[in-house]
Amino acid sequence: MFGVALVIALLAAGGWLAWLPEHRPGLQAGERYGVDVSAHQGRIDWEAVADDGIDFAYIKVTEGGDHVDGQYLENWSAAGMAGVDRGRYHFFTLCRSGADQARNFVNMVEEQGELPPAVDLELAGNCARRPPSATVERELRAFLDGIEGPERPAILYVGDDFADRYPLALLDEHPRWKPRFLRRPSGPWSVWQVQGLAHVEGIDGRVDLDVGS
To answer: How many CA atoms lie within 13 A of 136 on its CB side?
Structure first.
C-alpha cells in the first residue's frame, strides 16, 4: 500500500514539475509577460525570447558599490535589437553607502531604458551586516535620489525577508515589483514576479517569469 502511494506521489510531483515551467497566468487588459535576468542565465538568444511572447525584460546591471553584472552589456544591446522593452535593476547591499551604489549604477547607464529602473531589496544573498532601520532608510533614499529621473520613480522589488526586518516608510512611496508564487498579488503593483522556474525559449535553464501592468 505504501509503495502504491509513493508511486502516485512521484507521478503527481512529476506532473507538477512538467506543468510549472510552461505555466503562464492569464493576462488582464494592459498586461504583458516579461523576465528578469542576470549573468546566472548565461548567454541569451533574445530573438527567441521575443518570439516566445516575452515583451519586456529587467536586466541586472550592478550590485553594491563596484560590481557590474558580466552579461549586462550584451543583454542590454541584444534585448533592444530584438524589440524587447528593457529596464535595469540593481541589487542593493547593506554594506556600501547609497551614494557609492548610485555612482556604480549611473556609470553604466549610457541610455535610458524603456522601463524605469528597479532596485532588488533582499537579505538573501546580501552581506552579513544588518544596520538599524534608520540607516538603511537613509542610504536607500540616497541611492534612489542618485538614480531616479524627473517623474520616473524606481520600482522596488522587496523580498519578504527584507520587509520583515526593515518595514521602511520609504517602501510605500514607490511602485512595487511584487513576488508572489502563481497567485496575483493584492494591492497595487507595477510588476508581478510569478515564479522562478519558468521555461522561456532562448534561455537555458529556468528563469523568473514576470507580468507587467
So the answer is: 20
